[in-house]
Amino acid sequence: MTVATEQPSTATVDGTRRVRHALVDRLFHWTSAAAVLVLLATALLPILGIEFAWVTIHWVTGLVLMALVIAHVLRAVFWQDLRSMWIGIGDIRDGVAALRSALQQSADMVRIAGKYSLAQKAIHHAFTVVVLTAIGTGLMMLVKIDTPWWERDPYWVSDGVWGVVYVLHDLTSLCLVTMIILHVYFAFRPEKIHLLRSMILGWITRGEYDRYYDRSRWPARSDNRGFDEPSSEHE
Ligand code: HEM
Ligand code: HEM
Q1: Which end of the chain is more exposed for a tag (fewer CB within 10 A), N or C?
Q2: Res. 33 pLDDT band, cuts 50 70 90
Q3: Ligand 2 touching residue 122 (CB < 6 A)
Q4: Is-contact 21 202, C-beta < 8 A?
Protein backbone atom coordinates (compact mmCIF):
# COMPACT_ATOMS: atom_id res chain seq x y z
CA MET A 1 0.00 0.00 0.00
CA THR A 2 1.24 3.47 -0.80
CA VAL A 3 0.96 6.22 1.78
CA ALA A 4 -0.27 9.54 0.38
CA THR A 5 1.80 12.54 1.42
CA GLU A 6 0.75 16.16 0.89
CA GLN A 7 2.27 17.73 -2.18
CA PRO A 8 1.45 20.78 -4.29
CA SER A 9 -1.76 20.47 -6.29
CA THR A 10 0.19 19.89 -9.49
CA ALA A 11 1.77 16.70 -8.12
CA THR A 12 0.73 13.05 -8.25
CA VAL A 13 0.68 10.87 -5.13
CA ASP A 14 1.57 7.65 -6.96
CA GLY A 15 0.79 5.89 -10.23
CA THR A 16 -2.95 5.60 -9.53
CA ARG A 17 -3.90 8.87 -7.83
CA ARG A 18 -3.46 12.51 -8.61
CA VAL A 19 -3.53 15.24 -5.95
CA ARG A 20 -6.15 17.84 -6.88
CA HIS A 21 -6.36 19.86 -3.67
CA ALA A 22 -3.52 19.91 -1.10
CA LEU A 23 -4.58 19.64 2.56
CA VAL A 24 -4.07 23.37 3.17
CA ASP A 25 -6.40 24.23 0.25
CA ARG A 26 -9.06 21.79 1.45
CA LEU A 27 -8.87 23.30 4.95
CA PHE A 28 -9.27 26.74 3.38
CA HIS A 29 -12.32 25.62 1.36
CA TRP A 30 -14.16 24.03 4.29
CA THR A 31 -13.32 26.72 6.86
CA SER A 32 -14.28 29.56 4.49
CA ALA A 33 -17.46 27.67 3.51
CA ALA A 34 -18.31 27.23 7.23
CA ALA A 35 -17.59 30.94 7.85
CA VAL A 36 -19.88 31.99 4.97
CA LEU A 37 -22.67 29.70 6.23
CA VAL A 38 -22.33 31.09 9.79
CA LEU A 39 -22.43 34.64 8.39
CA LEU A 40 -25.59 33.86 6.41
CA ALA A 41 -27.27 32.08 9.34
CA THR A 42 -26.50 34.91 11.80
CA ALA A 43 -27.77 37.50 9.29
CA LEU A 44 -30.90 35.71 8.10
CA LEU A 45 -32.24 33.70 11.09
CA PRO A 46 -33.16 36.84 13.13
CA ILE A 47 -35.12 38.10 10.08
CA LEU A 48 -37.03 34.80 10.13
CA GLY A 49 -37.95 35.45 13.78
CA ILE A 50 -35.24 33.36 15.50
CA GLU A 51 -33.85 35.93 17.91
CA PHE A 52 -30.37 35.62 19.47
CA ALA A 53 -27.30 37.82 20.07
CA TRP A 54 -26.03 37.51 16.52
CA VAL A 55 -24.01 40.70 15.98
CA THR A 56 -20.77 39.67 17.73
CA ILE A 57 -20.73 36.19 16.16
CA HIS A 58 -21.38 37.82 12.76
CA TRP A 59 -18.58 40.39 12.73
CA VAL A 60 -16.00 38.11 14.38
CA THR A 61 -16.75 35.43 11.73
CA GLY A 62 -16.47 38.13 9.05
CA LEU A 63 -12.95 38.99 10.27
CA VAL A 64 -12.04 35.26 10.30
CA LEU A 65 -13.27 34.98 6.68
CA MET A 66 -11.17 38.03 5.73
CA ALA A 67 -8.04 36.43 7.25
CA LEU A 68 -8.78 33.17 5.39
CA VAL A 69 -9.23 34.97 2.07
CA ILE A 70 -5.98 36.95 2.54
CA ALA A 71 -4.13 33.67 3.25
CA HIS A 72 -5.74 32.06 0.16
CA VAL A 73 -4.74 34.95 -2.10
CA LEU A 74 -1.13 34.84 -0.82
CA ARG A 75 -1.03 31.09 -1.40
CA ALA A 76 -2.60 31.45 -4.87
CA VAL A 77 -0.07 34.13 -5.88
CA PHE A 78 3.11 32.59 -4.42
CA TRP A 79 2.52 28.80 -4.32
CA GLN A 80 -0.27 27.97 -6.79
CA ASP A 81 -0.78 28.52 -10.46
CA LEU A 82 -2.83 31.67 -11.09
CA ARG A 83 -3.30 30.58 -14.71
CA SER A 84 -5.34 27.54 -13.58
CA MET A 85 -8.16 29.97 -12.57
CA TRP A 86 -7.63 32.50 -15.37
CA ILE A 87 -10.41 32.80 -17.98
CA GLY A 88 -8.73 33.00 -21.38
CA ILE A 89 -10.15 33.30 -24.87
CA GLY A 90 -9.79 29.50 -25.23
CA ASP A 91 -12.12 28.97 -22.23
CA ILE A 92 -14.77 31.22 -23.82
CA ARG A 93 -14.49 29.28 -27.09
CA ASP A 94 -14.82 25.98 -25.16
CA GLY A 95 -17.86 27.35 -23.30
CA VAL A 96 -19.60 28.39 -26.54
CA ALA A 97 -18.75 25.02 -28.17
CA ALA A 98 -20.10 23.10 -25.14
CA LEU A 99 -23.30 25.18 -25.20
CA ARG A 100 -23.78 24.65 -28.96
CA SER A 101 -23.21 20.93 -28.53
CA ALA A 102 -25.65 20.76 -25.57
CA LEU A 103 -28.28 22.57 -27.68
CA GLN A 104 -27.48 20.13 -30.53
CA GLN A 105 -26.50 22.99 -32.83
CA SER A 106 -23.09 21.55 -33.55
CA ALA A 107 -21.53 18.10 -33.80
CA ASP A 108 -18.00 19.47 -33.25
CA MET A 109 -15.84 17.80 -30.60
CA VAL A 110 -15.76 19.80 -27.34
CA ARG A 111 -12.21 20.26 -26.03
CA ILE A 112 -11.83 18.71 -22.56
CA ALA A 113 -11.01 20.95 -19.66
CA GLY A 114 -7.85 21.90 -17.82
CA LYS A 115 -7.91 21.78 -14.01
CA TYR A 116 -11.08 23.92 -13.84
CA SER A 117 -13.91 24.24 -16.39
CA LEU A 118 -15.24 27.61 -17.55
CA ALA A 119 -18.26 27.17 -15.24
CA GLN A 120 -16.01 26.53 -12.23
CA LYS A 121 -13.83 29.54 -13.02
CA ALA A 122 -16.95 31.68 -13.45
CA ILE A 123 -18.38 30.63 -10.06
CA HIS A 124 -14.94 31.17 -8.43
CA HIS A 125 -14.80 34.72 -9.77
CA ALA A 126 -18.42 35.36 -8.83
CA PHE A 127 -17.67 34.17 -5.25
CA THR A 128 -14.59 36.43 -5.27
CA VAL A 129 -16.53 39.56 -6.28
CA VAL A 130 -19.41 38.85 -3.88
CA VAL A 131 -17.25 37.79 -0.88
CA LEU A 132 -14.86 40.76 -1.31
CA THR A 133 -17.85 43.14 -1.53
CA ALA A 134 -19.34 41.58 1.63
CA ILE A 135 -15.99 41.95 3.44
CA GLY A 136 -15.40 45.54 2.24
CA THR A 137 -18.88 46.78 3.17
CA GLY A 138 -18.80 44.73 6.41
CA LEU A 139 -15.55 46.44 7.44
CA MET A 140 -17.19 49.85 6.88
CA MET A 141 -20.22 48.78 8.94
CA LEU A 142 -17.89 47.83 11.82
CA VAL A 143 -17.37 51.58 12.39
CA LYS A 144 -21.06 51.76 13.35
CA ILE A 145 -20.80 49.33 16.27
CA ASP A 146 -18.79 49.24 19.50
CA THR A 147 -15.79 46.90 19.29
CA PRO A 148 -12.88 46.32 21.71
CA TRP A 149 -10.88 48.80 19.60
CA TRP A 150 -13.25 51.78 19.14
CA GLU A 151 -16.65 53.24 20.04
CA ARG A 152 -19.36 53.43 17.42
CA ASP A 153 -19.41 56.42 15.06
CA PRO A 154 -22.64 56.50 13.02
CA TYR A 155 -21.65 59.80 11.35
CA TRP A 156 -18.42 58.55 9.76
CA VAL A 157 -19.92 58.92 6.26
CA SER A 158 -23.13 60.55 5.00
CA ASP A 159 -26.53 58.82 5.17
CA GLY A 160 -26.47 58.43 1.38
CA VAL A 161 -23.18 56.50 1.50
CA TRP A 162 -24.43 54.31 4.38
CA GLY A 163 -27.50 53.53 2.24
CA VAL A 164 -25.32 52.26 -0.61
CA VAL A 165 -23.13 50.26 1.82
CA TYR A 166 -26.16 48.56 3.41
CA VAL A 167 -27.82 47.76 0.06
CA LEU A 168 -24.57 46.22 -1.26
CA HIS A 169 -24.00 44.23 1.94
CA ASP A 170 -27.60 42.88 1.89
CA LEU A 171 -27.33 42.11 -1.83
CA THR A 172 -24.26 39.94 -1.22
CA SER A 173 -26.25 37.70 1.14
CA LEU A 174 -28.99 37.26 -1.50
CA CYS A 175 -26.37 36.41 -4.16
CA LEU A 176 -24.53 34.01 -1.83
CA VAL A 177 -27.69 32.02 -1.00
CA THR A 178 -28.38 31.50 -4.73
CA MET A 179 -24.75 30.76 -5.62
CA ILE A 180 -24.27 28.28 -2.76
CA ILE A 181 -27.46 26.37 -3.72
CA LEU A 182 -26.14 26.10 -7.32
CA HIS A 183 -22.60 25.22 -6.19
CA VAL A 184 -23.75 22.49 -3.76
CA TYR A 185 -26.21 21.08 -6.32
CA PHE A 186 -23.38 20.59 -8.82
CA ALA A 187 -21.03 19.21 -6.13
CA PHE A 188 -23.49 16.34 -5.51
CA ARG A 189 -24.24 15.54 -9.18
CA PRO A 190 -23.18 11.91 -9.84
CA GLU A 191 -20.82 12.86 -12.69
CA LYS A 192 -19.06 15.42 -10.45
CA ILE A 193 -18.75 13.23 -7.38
CA HIS A 194 -15.00 12.73 -7.97
CA LEU A 195 -14.61 16.51 -7.41
CA LEU A 196 -16.41 16.25 -4.06
CA ARG A 197 -14.08 13.38 -3.10
CA SER A 198 -11.10 15.48 -4.16
CA MET A 199 -12.26 18.34 -1.92
CA ILE A 200 -12.54 15.89 1.01
CA LEU A 201 -9.64 13.46 0.50
CA GLY A 202 -7.53 15.49 -1.91
CA TRP A 203 -7.20 13.19 -4.92
CA ILE A 204 -8.81 11.89 -8.10
CA THR A 205 -8.00 8.51 -9.67
CA ARG A 206 -5.78 7.96 -12.65
CA GLY A 207 -8.86 6.89 -14.67
CA GLU A 208 -10.71 10.12 -13.78
CA TYR A 209 -7.69 12.18 -14.77
CA ASP A 210 -7.50 10.45 -18.13
CA ARG A 211 -11.22 10.69 -18.77
CA TYR A 212 -12.03 14.26 -17.67
CA TYR A 213 -8.86 16.29 -18.17
CA ASP A 214 -6.58 17.35 -20.97
CA ARG A 215 -3.11 16.51 -19.65
CA SER A 216 -1.50 19.33 -21.65
CA ARG A 217 -3.85 21.81 -19.94
CA TRP A 218 -3.38 20.29 -16.45
CA PRO A 219 -0.03 18.52 -16.67
CA ALA A 220 1.17 15.93 -14.15
CA ARG A 221 4.57 16.52 -12.61
CA SER A 222 7.24 14.89 -14.75
CA ASP A 223 9.08 13.33 -11.78
CA ASN A 224 6.21 10.95 -11.00
CA ARG A 225 7.01 7.76 -12.84
CA GLY A 226 4.20 5.55 -14.09
CA PHE A 227 1.62 8.34 -14.28
CA ASP A 228 2.29 9.31 -17.87
CA GLU A 229 1.73 5.75 -19.13
CA PRO A 230 -1.69 5.03 -20.67
CA SER A 231 -4.22 4.10 -17.99
CA SER A 232 -5.11 0.45 -17.44
CA GLU A 233 -7.93 1.44 -15.10
CA HIS A 234 -11.49 0.86 -16.36
CA GLU A 235 -14.25 2.25 -14.17
C1 HEM B 1 -8.44 38.05 -5.69
C2 HEM B 1 -8.79 36.99 -5.02
C3 HEM B 1 -8.51 35.56 -5.37
C4 HEM B 1 -7.51 34.99 -6.13
C5 HEM B 1 -6.35 35.67 -6.83
C6 HEM B 1 -7.75 33.56 -6.14
C7 HEM B 1 -7.01 32.62 -6.83
C8 HEM B 1 -7.25 31.27 -6.91
C9 HEM B 1 -6.52 30.31 -7.72
C10 HEM B 1 -5.35 30.63 -8.65
C11 HEM B 1 -7.05 29.09 -7.50
C12 HEM B 1 -6.62 27.76 -8.16
C13 HEM B 1 -5.64 27.05 -7.30
C14 HEM B 1 -5.28 25.70 -7.91
O15 HEM B 1 -6.12 24.81 -7.85
O16 HEM B 1 -4.16 25.58 -8.45
C17 HEM B 1 -8.12 29.23 -6.53
C18 HEM B 1 -8.89 28.21 -6.02
C19 HEM B 1 -9.87 28.35 -5.08
N20 HEM B 1 -10.37 29.56 -4.59
FE21 HEM B 1 -9.64 31.42 -5.01
N22 HEM B 1 -8.86 33.28 -5.38
C23 HEM B 1 -9.37 34.49 -4.89
C24 HEM B 1 -10.49 34.66 -4.08
C25 HEM B 1 -11.25 33.63 -3.55
C26 HEM B 1 -12.39 33.80 -2.65
C27 HEM B 1 -12.93 35.14 -2.16
C28 HEM B 1 -12.84 32.55 -2.34
C29 HEM B 1 -14.00 32.14 -1.45
C30 HEM B 1 -14.18 32.55 -0.26
C31 HEM B 1 -11.99 31.58 -3.04
C32 HEM B 1 -12.10 30.22 -2.96
C33 HEM B 1 -11.34 29.28 -3.65
C34 HEM B 1 -11.47 27.84 -3.50
C35 HEM B 1 -12.40 27.11 -2.53
C36 HEM B 1 -10.55 27.26 -4.41
C37 HEM B 1 -10.30 25.76 -4.64
C38 HEM B 1 -9.30 25.26 -3.64
C39 HEM B 1 -7.87 25.26 -4.12
O40 HEM B 1 -7.43 24.26 -4.69
O41 HEM B 1 -7.17 26.28 -3.91
N42 HEM B 1 -11.05 32.28 -3.78
N43 HEM B 1 -8.23 30.57 -6.20
C1 HEM C 1 -21.20 23.49 2.13
C2 HEM C 1 -21.25 22.84 1.05
C3 HEM C 1 -20.21 22.89 -0.03
C4 HEM C 1 -19.84 21.82 -0.80
C5 HEM C 1 -20.41 20.41 -0.73
C6 HEM C 1 -18.80 22.27 -1.71
C7 HEM C 1 -18.16 21.48 -2.62
C8 HEM C 1 -17.12 21.87 -3.43
C9 HEM C 1 -16.36 20.99 -4.28
C10 HEM C 1 -16.63 19.52 -4.44
C11 HEM C 1 -15.42 21.73 -4.90
C12 HEM C 1 -14.31 21.19 -5.78
C13 HEM C 1 -14.43 21.36 -7.20
C14 HEM C 1 -13.14 20.92 -7.85
O15 HEM C 1 -12.36 20.11 -7.33
O16 HEM C 1 -12.93 21.40 -8.93
C17 HEM C 1 -15.58 23.11 -4.48
C18 HEM C 1 -14.82 24.18 -4.93
C19 HEM C 1 -15.06 25.49 -4.61
N20 HEM C 1 -15.92 25.93 -3.60
FE21 HEM C 1 -17.22 24.78 -2.54
N22 HEM C 1 -18.57 23.61 -1.50
C23 HEM C 1 -19.41 24.04 -0.48
C24 HEM C 1 -19.49 25.33 0.02
C25 HEM C 1 -18.84 26.43 -0.51
C26 HEM C 1 -19.05 27.81 -0.09
C27 HEM C 1 -20.01 28.25 1.01
C28 HEM C 1 -18.22 28.57 -0.87
C29 HEM C 1 -18.00 30.07 -0.90
C30 HEM C 1 -18.30 30.93 -0.15
C31 HEM C 1 -17.49 27.70 -1.76
C32 HEM C 1 -16.56 28.12 -2.70
C33 HEM C 1 -15.88 27.31 -3.57
C34 HEM C 1 -15.01 27.79 -4.62
C35 HEM C 1 -14.73 29.26 -4.95
C36 HEM C 1 -14.48 26.65 -5.26
C37 HEM C 1 -13.48 26.65 -6.42
C38 HEM C 1 -14.21 26.70 -7.74
C39 HEM C 1 -14.79 25.35 -8.14
O40 HEM C 1 -14.03 24.39 -8.24
O41 HEM C 1 -16.04 25.28 -8.33
N42 HEM C 1 -17.89 26.40 -1.52
N43 HEM C 1 -16.61 23.16 -3.57
Answers
A1: N
A2: very high
A3: no
A4: yes
